Amino acid sequence: NAGVTQTPKFQVLKTGQSMTLQCAQDMNHNSMYWYRQDPGMGLRLIYYSASEGTTDKGEVPNGYNVSRLNKREFSLRLESAAPSQTSVYFCASSEGLAGHEQYFGPGTRLTVT
Amino acid sequence: GENVEQHPSTLSVQEGDSAVIKCTYSDSASNYFPWYKQELGKRPQLIIDIRSNVGEKKDQRIAVTLNKTAKHFSLHITETQPEDSAVYFCAASVYDYKLSFGAGTTVTVRA
């Protein structure tokens, strides 16, 4: 079991460029999440998907879009990157409704210049 | 939405001493309180969690206490060891999927 995997591990973008962060889980989890982690601010939820076919905004969704491609995969897209989106991005998954452990991926370190 | 505050932001302890991290939450309907540990350069991992119908939970050297009336919960690490050095995050959620995380506490265990 690989658990939660993310690609790429590192990425440097210029302002205005677009990119998609990929996430996949092999634990047959229903729910998936995208967080960003910035120094001194903990983990902030960008978007989440309660189950295949549904997505909802989290705390900081502006500038991002997501796609729940199937039960395993949940991608995060930056349409026009900005320096404020420089961060470490974590994907996570959990078995189901609230109260379940979230399993995190290894993270993607994104720098926007 | 839920607001979780975490204190202190940094904590330095002598090896073998105890460490305590405190969190407060704003939404009295919150009912699930996990703690995650993140080692340098690694992903966050769950170390312990507690639900609102329980006041205290222990797992070896770590324990979590919950005071629903005061809306705060704490992580206690006893007999600290160098491998306890990490960033610890508390979180809280109501009956939905959204965990609200605290800002984190960087714990350093001095040998």
Estimated helix fraction of chain A: under 10%
In helices, the fraction of residues of chain B equals under 10%
User: Residue ranges of chain A: pLDDT <50 for 5 or more in a row?
Assistant: none
Strand content of chain A: over 45%
Topology order of chain A in helix (H) and strand (E) letters: EEEEEEEEEEE
The SS-based structural class of chain A is mainly beta
What is the averaged pLDDT score of chain A? Answer: 94
Characterization of this structure:
The complex is a heterodimer of chains A (113) and B (111). Chain A is mostly beta strands and 113 residues long. Chain A has strands at 4-7, 10-13, 19-25, 31-37, 43-49, 56-57, 64-68, 74-78, 87-94, 103-104, 108-112. In chain A, the strands form two sheets. In chain A, strands 2, 4, 5, 6, 9, 10 and 11 form a seven-stranded mixed β-sheet that branches. A four-stranded antiparallel β-sheet of chain A has the order 1-3-8-7, with no helix packed on it. Helix content of chain B is 0%, strand content 55%. The relative contact order of chain B is 0.35. Chain A binds chain B through residues 31, 33, 40-45, 48, 50, 58-59, 90, 94, 97-99, 101-102, 104-107, and chain B through 1, 6, 9, 31-32, 34, 42-46, 49, 51, 89, 93-104.
